[in-house]
Batch of 2 targets.
Target 1
Amino acid sequence: MLRLGVQVSISGGLSKAVERAEILGCNTIQIFSRNPRSFKRVLRTEEEIEEFREKRRQAKIYPLFIHAVYTLNLASPDARFYRLSIRDFIRDLKDAQHLGSEFVVTHIGSFKGSSREKGIKRVIRALENILSKMPSSLNLLLENTSGSGHWLGGDFKEIAYIINSLGKSEKIGVCLDTCHAFSAGYNLREAKGLRELLGEIDDYIGLNKLKLIHLNDSQDELGSYKDRHFHIGEGYIGEEGFRRIINHPQLKNLPFILETPKKKEEDDFRNLEKVRRLYKNL
Ligand SMILES: [Zn+2]
């Protein structure tokens, strides 16, 4: 069965996110549990949380992915900010557990002017700390990036190195963002590129660790290192590329979440329809 959803807004309250998902016909969703560009924490009432959990149960939305906020950086070379990032990340995980989420998705971080090696060391240390305090019901997914500038995680071998340094943790997995992978140089437009990417994930991490696909087309060419998501089939990955990804035997049973542009009301409907049409339509 196709598990398909979008990133939905929580504006107006958490329960609104479920209502939006139901209108769109989604059976899985991703949300930010608070403003992704702010440091502000939110205090929610037990009623609000219970209402959200109940609505979600009724709407049969599974899994619930919570995307970590953009303000934290687990690779920061600034000691004070690094500590604050770990502290807030752990608090956000507790909140995610409270909301009943199964997965938290995060970018790996930026080494910002220090060296890549040092950045990777800091991320590993941060993740060790975070995993030791992970609520048992939650899993953490590391998302690949477009690999621009000082961002870590554009290369799956780098993600593999981080994950494999954490020992045998069941609590950590991977999210594949198709737009980011394409901008980082994995040619998902072609069958060969998809095969090579999945081979790399399998060889270095294990495909069983791949738990989520962020389905986004790319507004930029292969290897552009840019991060500009686009409507499914209308960018450089293209319709054939997505047909292959969505129907791939090792991917088709994973949840797909769209993070495509929402300029107009109908954009989400159009992108979701496109995926449904491509699914099984080989
Ligand atoms: Zn993404």
Note: Residues 143, 177, 214, 259 surround zinc ion (CB under 6 Å).
Target 2
Amino acid sequence: MHRPLDCFSKEYSEARDKFLTASQSVEGTLTSYKNTVPDLELELVTDVFYLGAKQASNLLVLISATHGVEGYCGSAAQIDFLHLLPEIDTDTAVLIIHALNPYGFAFDRRVNEDNIDLNRNFVDFTAPPSNNDYQELKPFLALTDLAEKSVLATQHSLEQYRLDWGDMRFEQAVSGGQYSDAHGLFYGGNKASWSHQLIQQLMNEFHISERQKVIVVDIHSGLGPYGYGEVISDHPPDSSGAKWARECFGYNMTEPAAGTSSSVPKHGLMDYLWHQNFPAQGCYVTLEFGTFAVDKMFAILQQENYCWHHPVSTEQKQSIQKQLREYFYPEYQDWQEMVLFRCQQIITMSLKKLAHE
Ligand SMILES: [Zn+2]
């Protein structure tokens, strides 16, 4: 199958232009939300496009770039959707949130303007979760310099922990979210970020809790087998949300809480806020496209994070940033085709489920 791949972009501003152009040819309402970051002239905007009747009973939500640099695949899928524009039931609407973390997308970072991992930012900040294992790993996760010897030494130490603790405990310690180290990896922040507040606003404006059926598909990349789009539900396995998600996606779906996913249970996911506002038939799934090995991801993130908090040469910083971008966005035809095919498949399944039964 050959698909046009011109919905993929080389950078955030191009992705935004393509999204705006694609939305102009479709009947719907566009609203743009500007994120003003001090001392930065670059225009950072989350664009939100709504198609369908305002009062439609059912809603499909498509989100891209929760993790900035992961926006390349999600943005392309959203633009592809607008190009193809499948038939949509008259009682169903579609809400497209393009570049939820525009800063991360623009700078090829996973985190936002405050080094916050947006998908760890949805916690009660009066009592943030603790992550004692992170504290233990912190001396090895935080590099002291970028010399190959130092980087390899920390990786060796971390590998020992992985062997001692097992994959799940180790990955939870590193990537499950931490709230004590603002310059560290997978930092969840100490307040609701700009994007977090925007999501709250959109949930009210688009009357999420008043709909009959809602499906949210949040498109990510970086975990799992190369090119495969894993449908991940972080609903508690016994909840009505998990039941509805299973009805929608069946055997496609995996659950970190049940240990069936390439993702581990995490603190502060954006999912949790949506879960609280869903009708009985409401679910939030992450559509996660695999790229490369997770160890490689941790090593690149460590080095990239170092570059943002220490003086390094422009060449060094650019080189690491490029590696990070390539990790989260393998810019190859096979990978891109798999992304578009799978997104179309999941969107079709969702629209069918919202329209019938
Ligand atoms: Zn992600």
Note: The chain has a mean pLDDT of 96.
